[in-house]
Amino acid sequence: xxxxxxxxxxxxxxxxxxxxxxxxxxxxxxxxxxxxxxxxxxxxxxxxxxxxxxxxxxxxxxxxxxxxxxxxxxxxxxxxxxxxxxxxxxxxxxxxxxxxxxxxxxxxxxxxxxxxxxxxxxxxxxxxxxxxxxxxxxxxxxxxxxxxxxxxxxxxxxxxxxxxxxxxxxxxxxxxxxxxxxxxxxxxxxxxxxxxxxxxxxxxxxxxxxxxxxxxxxxxxxxxxxxxxxxxxxxxxxxxxxxxxxxxxxxx
Length: 252
Ligand SMILES: Nc1ncnc2c1ncn2[C@@H]1O[C@H](COP(=O)(O)OP(=O)(O)OP(=O)(O)O)[C@@H](O)[C@H]1O
What we know:
Blueprint: E1 9-20, E2 23-34, E3 39-43, H1 50-57, E4 68-71, E5 80-81, H2 82-87, H3 91-101, E6 102-105, H4 117-127, H5 134-144, H6 159-172, E7 177-181, H7 189-206, E8 209-214, H8 217-221, E9 226-234, E10 239-248
Helix pairs in contact: 4-6, 5-6, 6-7
Bound molecules: adenosine-5'-triphosphate.
InterPro entries: AAA+_ATPase (IPR003593), ABC_transporter-like_ATP-bd (IPR003439), ABC_transpr_LolD-like (IPR015854), P-loop_NTPase (IPR027417)
Family: Belongs to the ABC transporter superfamily.
Keywords: ATP-binding, Nucleotide-binding
């Protein structure tokens, strides 16, 4: 069913080369897609290129080469041609997409300590130049079990509560894509499962495309609709190549 929905992000023929002194790392992504309502897992060993892929999807790292890189910016409009925006170095166009379409969940929550939880949650909407509906914040907080935390400071929350607030903040301004980098790294297994379940449910209910990067294969393979991993090999003394490929395609 999810296959019929047009991708929110579509990448074909991506190559990203990163070099440091003599060593060169080359990531190849023949095809990557995430659709509205899907949770896509990106899994693999340390150094295989997960963050490189996530930073590319987040439009903060320019591809070295790419055949096609599109983001659906609205239902009634043609997808934005990200490859063309990078090719002409259109920073205004790229930052408008970052601001309008994306929500981010970081490993440690990334909440600003000097703002209340509610102010943290409302920040992305403020940056977009709008206001958040109080009723939306409260109903999401209710669903995530953090309704009692809204008027506290982040320091007064447990790590699990901070991660839930970070998910709420990422989703509250109604992004089309949520990018989550090891969102459960700082919590125990039981909390990690609950957080992943929440993200998956919210993705479906709100038709958001979610990309989760994680080391924890067991955690995501039960939950992700689609999963990608990497075949990494040492090509020569200084060159490492990593191929990103699907390990699960389509809805489970
Ligand atoms: N700034 C950089 N310059 C050059 N090479 C880099 C840079 N950052 C990372 N790399 C190399 O790129 C490769 C992929 O790194 P990346 O951070 O994407 O891996 P990862 O899968 O996210 O790893 P981890 O799970 O440890 O965070 C690694 O071999 C790394 O050494």
